[in-house]
Amino acid sequence: MQKLSTNQTPSLLRKMSYVAKDKDYDATGAPVSTKLHKIRITLTSSNVANLEKFSRDLVNRAKDKDLRVKGPVRLPTKVLKITTRKTVSYPAEASTASL
Questions:
Q1: Residue 71: CB partners within 8 Å, gap ≥ 6?
Q2: 57 backbone dihedrals φ, ψ, rounded to 5°
Q3: Are the CB atoms for 25 and 34 separated by under 8 Å?
Q4: What pTM, to 2 d.p., does this model score?
Q5: Per its UniProt record, what Pfam families does this chain match (predicted)?
């Protein structure tokens, strides 16, 4: 393997360096960590218009305070109905004997 001088550094080694830019640093140079609180709110109602208005107001208030918001995520509200035919079940021997 060939030894590389400082001006012949391969591009792979240069690309692997990483500088964290999104962190805040205190006076000593140590990164300051901020605690992230995740909140999930589930709203249920039979009135969809009220739900939409309330969730829109909630999102707008959060964005006014510069909070990160994801949502709202709508869930399906359609009620599925499965109709079945109910019949009386007879044993096979009894039905053939009566014929």
A1: 55, 59
A2: -65, -40
A3: no
A4: 0.46
A5: Ribosomal_S10
